[in-house]
Design brief:
Structural class: mainly beta
Largest sheet: 5 strands, antiparallel
CATH architecture: Beta Barrel
Protein name: tRNA-binding protein
InterPro entries: CsaA, NA-bd_OB-fold, tRNA-bd_dom, Tyrosine-tRNA_ligase_regulator
Shape: globular
Pfam families: tRNA_bind
Number of strands: 9
Keywords: RNA-binding, tRNA-binding
GO molecular function, one term: tRNA binding
Helix content: under 10%
Length: about 110
């Protein structure tokens, strides 16, 4: 399916820095609860992320990632996920996070 640029422009993808990682034992698949700082008007938001295979919790603090910030919140068990962190699967299907290859200001928009 082909979409227009106007369709793409409706998706608000921003860069943020992971500032906290908590276990999420209630999740059906292994996951973390992430707190991500998007700076400015967006502030901090929380997300559930199934990234435990490739990322020990302590390796995520300070990492910049890209996330969709304008989807509605999604309830995942007892947790409300406010943003969708972006990633792609590796050859074995584990999620590899998407982020800038150098430090950029939090809140920067992908376009």
């Amino acid at each position: 399916m082909t979409i227009s640029y106007d369709d793409f422009a409706k998706i608000d993808i921003r860069v943020g820095t992971i500032i906290a990682v908590d276990p999420f034992p209630e999740a059906r698949k292994p996951a973390y609860k992430l707190t991500v700082d998007f700076g400015g008007d967006i502030g901090t938001r929380r997300s559930s992320a199934q990234i435990t295979t490739l990322y020990p919790a302590e390796s995520l603090i300070g990492r910049q990632i890209l996330a969709v910030v304008n989807f509605p919140s999604k309830r995942i068990g007892p947790f409300t996920s406010e943003v969708l962190c972006l990633g792609v699967p590796d050859a074995e299907g584990a999620v590899v996070l998407v982020g800038p290859d150098r430090a950029v200001p939090n809140g920067g928009q992908l376009y």
